[in-house]
Design goal:
Number of helices: 14
Distance between the termini: 142 Å
Shape: globular
Order of helices and strands: HHHHHHEHEHHEEHHEHHEHE
Number of strands: 7
Structural class: alpha/beta
Strand content: 5-15%
Radius of gyration: 38 Å
Oligomer: single chain
Length: 358
């Protein structure tokens, strides 16, 4: 009986051990459950709605440009009515007359009725005979005019250079974006040159889109580059270095860079004045010299000591812009146009002796 009981107890112990071992093995060899994955549904990409403020700003610019273009068309139509066949014949005679000097030619040009009616009143402030004489204009030069505006100087230069020299006028692309005012200036230039084949038929037009397209002509081809009241625009656009490099490239060795601009107070900084249209003269000279030019001469031909240079609306407060309209109009008319620096730079040939500054 005892033996039987021991046997049964041994069997039970063996059975328990085998069961425990089997359970452990089962636990050890049981396959692991697959990792849990989370599926995230990404919504389709959507295009952000345009900023309403930006859209309104573009629309406002576009409307302003359209308004200016309409005014330009009206001005062109008015000028076309004035430009009769008889006037065109007078232009031919003016162009072909045998002038003995540039001064004699300019005297005839300034008295001619081919000039736009708005231009002669500005002679007293711009001093064209003295100015072009100072820069050394001759009728056999190839001249490039940067920023011709309404053609104030263009209508004087074109007939002088028509026979023996040449004139290139540089302006913005007339087919640029329709919300940019530059297309107004570009189209104004196109329409100016189309006005008179006798006067402008030989004039070449170059369109630029700075800073991407700023080639003014064949390298080393120009005798003179004129930039009158333009550099403040370049500085405001942070493009003056690019313009100066383009001017240097297109000029011949010994060629003239003729620069006039609104002159700030002597102690002013460019950062403080550029938005007002004025530039410090010493700073301008420094920038142009840094581009490789030499200052050959300075003149006070276009100085105006009445200009206080402290107007809320900048230089455009003065004539001809008179941006304040009738507000203190008589006061600003009495001051006249701005005080201007008149600087003659030359592109010195490599190895040539420095020019003496006058």
């Amino acid at each position: 009986m005892v033996i039987k009981t021991k046997f049964l107890l041994g069997a039970l112990a063996l059975s328990s051990a085998l069961t425990a071992t089997a359970c452990k093995k089962s636990e050890k060899e049981a396959p692991k459950p697959p990792p849990t994955t989370t599926t995230t549904t990404t919504p389709p990409a959507t295009t952000a709605a345009p900023d309403a403020g930006a859209v309104d700003e573009v629309a406002a610019r576009r409307a302003k440009v359209a308004e200016r273009l309409a005014k330009l068309d009206a001005d062109v139509a008015k000028e076309a009515a004035r430009w009769t066949p008889e006037l065109e014949a007078k232009v031919v005679a003016l162009r072909d007359a045998p002038y003995k000097s540039v001064d004699e030619a300019l005297t005839a040009m300034l008295a001619s009725e081919h000039r736009h009616p708005n231009h002669p009143p500005r002679d007293a402030y711009r001093h064209p005979r003295e100015t072009l004489g100072f820069f050394g204009l001759t009728p056999d030069m190839h001249v490039i005019e940067l920023g011709s505006g309404t053609g104030w100087y263009t209508e004087l230069l074109a007939p002088i250079l028509a026979k023996r020299g040449s004139l290139t006028v540089v302006g913005p692309d007339p087919e640029g974006p329709d919300d940019q005012m530059s297309i107004v200036y570009g189209r104004r230039l196109v329409k100016l040159l189309a006005k008179s084949p006798a006067l402008y038929g030989a004039v070449k037009r170059v369109a630029i889109t700075p800073p991407d397209r700023l080639t003014l002509g064949e390298p080393g081809s120009a005798d003179m580059v004129i930039a009158f009241r333009e550099m403040h625009n370049w500085v405001g656009a942070k493009a003056h270095a690019a313009y100066l490099a383009a001017i240097f490239a297109v000029l011949k060795d010994g060629g003239t860079f003729a620069l006039i601009d609104h002159r700030a107070k002597p102690d002013a900084t460019v950062e403080a004045t550029v938005e007002s249209g004025y530039l410090p003269e010493a700073w301008v000279i420094e920038q142009v010299k840094a581009a490789g030019f030499e200052l050959a001469a300075q003149s006070e031909i276009n100085a105006n000591p009445k200009d206080t240079k402290d107007y809320e609306k900048g230089v455009w407060t003065l004539p001809p812009a008179l941006t304040l309209g009738d507000v203190d109009r008589d006061k600003y008319v009495a001051i006249g146009e701005s005080d201007r620096m008149t600087l003659k730079f030359v592109k010195r040939a490599a190895g040539a002796a420095p020019a003496a500054t006058k």
